[in-house]
Specification:
heterodimer; A: 113 residues; mainly beta; 7-stranded mixed sheet; 4-stranded antiparallel sheet; B: 111 residues; 6-stranded mixed sheet; 0% helix
């Protein structure tokens, strides 16, 4: 039974389009995250939600908007896609404490043409 | 702000040889440290973590790491490499609940 799932796994789209990536966790965790992994494999936190409330919002363009309809879901909506948005986006979840293990989804490879 | 430096973007070893992946951190508070592994086209999986207590931490797949406060290091080791260990390895420090990652080390294992 998949712990953290993301859809779609691959996403190819044109510049200027709007797209969404969905994430669901069945671990009962309080906190969910979005990370971006660039072409050099560098991972960086984008957002963090705790019990549906935004607690971390790193410096990302406001074209990126996370939405958490409930504790088990954290979706990422991206407006007006740019070439530089091409990356692998990972969703993760954990309990709320900073010692807790984060469990990662399989990633969504976004390619903007 | 906390940071992590992984020395060596690429490490190559022979099967059966010692694996040593280096990680140094910068933190103004007692750090919580993690090692994650990423196999090709997959998400990240926790290998081990240090929070408090024993400074030598054992993880999955025969890996271990030692927290050395005086050296601000958390190096990952495995006595004998296996072909299946070839992957990307990330050291991370927690900042609040977010993880701050190093740039990763690619481990190659040759037969």
């Amino acid at each position: 039974d998949t712990a953290v799932s993301q859809t779609p796994k691959y996403l190819v789209t044109q510049m200027g389009n709007d797209k969404s990536i969905k994430c669901e966790q069945n671990l009962g965790h309080d906190t969910m995250y979005w990370y971006k992994q660039d072409s050099k494999k560098f991972l960086k936190i984008m957002f963090s939600y705790n019990n549906k409330e935004l607690i971390i919002n790193e410096t990302v363009p406001n074209r990126f908007s996370p939405k958490s309809p409930d504790k088990a879901h954290l979706n990422l909506h991206i407006n007006s896609l740019e070439l530089g948005d091409s990356a692998v986006y990972f969703c993760a979840s954990s309990q709320a404490r900073d010692t807790d293990t984060q469990y990662f989804g399989p990633g969504t490879r976004l390619t903007v043409l | 702000a906390q940071s992590v430096t992984q020395l060596g973007s690429h490490v190559s070893v022979s099967e059966g040889a010692l694996v040593l992946l280096r990680c140094n951190y910068s933190s103004s508070v007692p750090p919580y440290l993690f090692w994650y592994v990423q196999y090709p086209n997959q998400g990240l999986q926790l290998l081990l973590k240090y929070t408090t207590g024993a400074t030598l931490v054992k993880g999955i797949n025969g890996f271990e790491a030692e927290f050395k406060k005086s050296e601000t290091s958390f190096h990952l080791t495995k006595p004998s490499a296996h072909m299946s260990d070839a992957a990307e390895y990330f050291c991370a420090v927690s900042e609040g609940t977010a993880l701050i990652f190093g740039k990763g080390t690619t481990l190659s294992v040759s037969s």
